[in-house]
Design brief:
57% helix, five-stranded parallel beta sheet, 11 strands, 5 domains, Rossmann fold, four-stranded antiparallel beta sheet, mainly alpha, flat
């Protein structure tokens, strides 16, 4: 079905002219889809098919791949429409074989619609199935446990309502109710009150126990053999990908009359399947493997390499024994197909239907033959040729001569290029240097003082528009890659010096954009770093932008197109060195600190960073050394940054105060506070000082002041970090208030990426539940594992302190001894010895003589009195709770 092509229609005053968006035949591709569905449904319905079988080779993937502009996304949309039999379905494609039965198409664009992550994929799949009116109990229970961990305090319905793509899916209105109903049923089955709250602690253990014992109320659910194991696993995105197995099992339990065959179309798969970075592809492959009763139709630029045994280790299942129909030369559907090069017949139909006048094709036979021959079946070529034909027809009032279309693709781009006005050509050249652009950015990059040429370019069919992007326009990749070649034949072609000057203009224009807001700061850094690297430009505004990027704790990724500028193995330019630094610093939130430290050492050793920027890697290397427990190296590194006297001097001074606190030199910390000021986060350092003395009220007041000051200046990352510290301190004294502080910390951390703070909030929950939660030691060890995986030695120590506090409240010598033994693993000489000493102060026990003594601000006795009071208060509160 074809709709009007408004872009073409509004380029001519001729009212007899009809322009349509015409989707060419693609009969062969549809035949592959239809045949794949027949084969797939035969296998799924065959006797002996077991959706829980994890060893049988998979034959549920149909792949269409080809170059950009070939029409893969159009094909994906066409297949989805046809399978849905709704508006936009292809009437010229024959119907599916009756044996296939009901089909449920689910199309996901990995580049735009939901974003490239497993959570969005799984949620989109569940939303699509929700409209069937049947709960997916195994998946829903596990997913709710994941949701409570990944999105604490955020209801699913609110999340869906605020995200336009999800809210458009028909199941968005019923899914939350379906999931809540499943949780209620599960809670009743194990005789627990509540619904969602039952998926933690005692409730979770009760449900898992019932599943393992196959109790009669959950016997049907226990048929999903791996549900209990998945409920006990850490609820993260890696675990979430395994929930596809639960989803597949649920689909298999639908009553016969309600059975459907889901067809999941994953478009723009190249966004997930990078050749050098397969983390997301690994998770997506896992979803495909675990859902053998679902047909996946993958469209992308690259052939799937899952049948390549050399990828073992990068992917869970790699090799022809796992994916026999993805190997080259496979004949049975579903398999891999090269797509996009339309047949001559398809091209002829396209050109006949695309532009008509009085019901007849506007292009005559000779023009259509020439265009078809030179297009090599590339839909983008056909579209450009049609638009060129229309422009010439509009100018002269007649059909242009056929020789004007006897062009190959670069020649067509060159001809299209020459047909642009000189100033529009200037803009096109300039924006070819950019990943994306706005009208004002394009005008500035071109060195013009008026916007009309940029506005003219933005209306061309080879410019894509994404209103949600920082800058909405981008050249089609094929055009962008051909502009330089086309330019070499133009009369006003640019010299290398012209391109250098254009790069400099674009670079300066990006610098002006970087001051507008955080989103444009990050986008400007991405493009500016690449330009500075490719054209050997001075860093200029990038220096200030880099400091602004790190001064808060948002840590957006800074991936750059083209050269891998995050590769630290061969740093060759200052821009490359800065890119590696920022990428490493941002990435440390999800990597072990030792990896970040190694990268920063390579940056410093390269010698490519200017002196004004060396404090960046030096400070964060010192911070990594602190987190890793390299006390002296961190102390030395902080001092080097202080001696430089640059923008991070105050931050490094705070770092030294943290180190002094680690070894119990509290008067030194107090003296340092007076020199820190706002930039050194004076109030947060005071909060760190006061809680360790047992002065919880003072600590909370200081943390709150630090948070409020950060919020007033728009520093959301610092606010989140201060709030995480506040939740920890308050947890020692006021459990109800601590619950509120923890919830607020999680909310603020939803807009930042601070791994230390995320774990600190988990530790705050441990302290809040000390003396009350019976499973606290087990929970503490889980949090300690997370801290070790991140390389955060202080977090590990605080976890063990929380366990000691728990044992002290319970007055359990055995439990306290075990907790102290675990804390002792964090004590290295004086480092963290004050935490061990606190475990003796809070219980009134004698400190071992070999344990280094801390320098408490107002003496041991006053400090002991405060900590003992905290333990006593918690004992009374715990007793009251038990009595209630």
């Amino acid at each position: 079905m074809s709709g009007s092509d408004l872009r073409a229609l509004f380029r001519s005053n001729d009212r007899e002219l009809k322009a349509v968006d015409f989707f060419a035949d693609r009969q062969g591709e549809w035949a592959s889809v239809a045949e794949s569905l027949v084969r797939h449904t035969e296998r799924v319905r065959a006797p002996g098919f077991d959706v829980q079988d994890l060893e049988t080779p998979r034959r549920n993937v149909l792949v269409f791949y080809g170059v950009g502009g070939i029409g893969k996304s159009t094909l994906s949309r066409g297949v989805a429409d046809r399978l849905a039999d709704g508006i936009g379905g292809r009437e010229d494609w024959p119907p599916l074989h009756p044996s296939v039965g009901r089909v449920l198409p689910i199309r996901i664009d990995l580049s735009r619609e939901t974003g490239s992550d497993v959570e969005s994929l799984m949620l989109a799949l569940r939303l699509a199935v929700a409209d069937l009116g049947h709960a997916m109990p195994a998946f829903d229970i596990a997913f709710q446990r994941y949701w409570q961990s990944a999105h604490p305090g955020e209801p699913l319905e609110e999340y869906l309502r605020h995200r336009a793509w999800f809210s458009r899916l028909p199941g968005s209105n019923v899914l939350p109710q379906q999931m809540q109903s499943v949780l209620s049923d599960a809670a009743q089955a194990v005789t627990l009150p509540g619904t969602a709250g039952a998926l933690v602690g005692v409730g979770l253990r009760a449900l898992v126990g019932a599943l393992r014992d196959r109790r009669h109320r959950v016997r049907t659910l226990a048929g999903c053999r791996r549900l209990a194991d998945l409920l006990e696993a850490e609820p993260n995105q890696d675990t979430l990908s395994y929930f596809a197995h639960l989803f597949a099992w649920d689909l298999g339990q639908l009553p016969e009359k309600h059975r459907v065959t889901p067809v999941v179309m994953l478009d723009t798969f190249e966004e997930a399947g990078h050749r050098g970075h397969r983390d997301l592809e690994k998770l997506l492959q896992r979803v495909v493997w675990l859902m053998p009763n679902v047909l996946f139709v993958v469209t992308g630029r690259n052939r799937l390499q899952w049948a390549d045994a050399t990828l073992e280790g990068q992917l869970d299942w790699a090799g022809p024994e796992y994916w026999p129909q993805l190997v080259g030369g496979a004949l049975e559907e579903p398999r891999q197909h090269t797509v996009g090069y339309l047949s001559a017949e398809d091209c002829e139909i396209y050109l006949c239907e695309r532009l008509t006048i009085g019901g007849e094709p506007l292009l005559d036979d000779r023009a259509r033959r020439f265009i078809t021959r030179n297009s090599y079946g590339l839909p983008l070529y056909l579209d450009l040729a049609v638009m060129r034909f229309l422009d010439l027809y509009r100018r002269s009032g007649r059909a242009p001569d056929v020789h004007e279309f006897n062009l190959d693709f670069p020649a067509l781009v060159a001809r299209t290029f020459r047909d642009l006005a000189p100033e529009t050509r200037r803009v096109l050249r300039s924006v070819s240097l950019l990943d994306s652009f706005s009208i004002s950015l394009a005008t500035a990059a071109a060195g013009l003082d008026h916007d009309a040429p940029a506005m003219d370019l933005a209306e061309r069919p080879f410019v894509d528009v994404d209103p949600a992007a920082p800058w909405p326009y981008r050249l089609h990749d094929l055009i962008r890659g051909t502009v330089r070649e086309a330019d070499s034949t133009s009369e006003d072609r640019w010299s290398e010096a012209d391109w250098q000057r254009a790069a400099l203009r674009a670079f300066h224009a990006l610098g002006l954009e970087s001051d507008r807001d955080r989103t444009r700061l990050v986008a400007s850094l991405r493009q500016g770093l690449r330009l500075a690297n490719d054209y050997r430009l001075d860093l200029g505004w990038l220096e200030d932008a880099a400091f602004r990027y790190v001064e808060d704790f948002i840590w957006e990724p800074l991936g750059t197109a083209g050269t891998d500028m995050s590769d630290s193995a061969s740093i060759i330019t200052p821009a490359h060195a800065l890119s590696v630094t920022l990428t490493a610093v941002a990435g440390r939130q999800r990597r072990h600190r030792s990896l970040t430290a190694e990268t920063l050492r390579r940056v410093l050793a390269s010698g490519h960073l200017p002196e004004t920027l060396r404090e960046l890697p030096q400070y964060f290397l010192a911070e990594c050394d602190r987190d890793l427990g390299n006390f002296q190296a961190s102390l030395s590194g902080m001092q080097q940054v202080i001696d430089i006297g640059g923008r991070l001097a105050a931050t490094a001074a705070r770092g030294q105060a943290h180190l002094a606190r680690r070894v119990g030199c509290f008067p030194q910390v107090r003296d340092a506070v007076g020199t820190l000021g706002t930039e050194g986060r004076r109030d947060r350092v005071l909060g760190d000082l006061w809680w360790s003395q047992g002065s919880v009220a003072l600590a909370c007041a200081s943390y709150a002041a630090s948070r409020d000051e950060a919020l007033s200046t728009g520093q959301s990352g610092e606010a989140a970090l201060s709030q995480a510290c506040l939740s920890f301190a308050s947890a020692f004294q006021d459990r109800p208030r601590a619950a509120e502080q923890i919830a607020r910390a999680k909310d603020l951390l939803g807009h930042a990426s601070i791994r230390w703070a995320e774990i600190q909030v988990e530790i705050a929950a441990l302290v809040r539940d000390a003396g009350v939660a019976t499973d606290l030691p087990e929970r503490a060890e889980q949090v300690a594992v997370l801290a070790r995986e991140a390389g955060l030695t202080s977090s590990v120590a605080y976890v063990h302190l929380a366990a000691c506090f728990h044992a002290a409240v319970l007055d359990s010598p055995a439990l306290l001894e075990a907790a102290r033994d675990r804390l002792a693993t964090s004590v290295r000489g004086e480092e963290f010895a004050y935490l061990m000493e606190l475990t003796y102060l809070m219980t009134g026990d004698q400190r071992p003589s070999e344990l280094p003594a801390a320098q408490w601000l107002d003496g041991v006795q006053q400090t002991q009195a405060r900590w003992a009071a905290l333990v006593a208060d918690r004992r009374r509160e715990a007793a009251t709770n038990r009595g209630a």
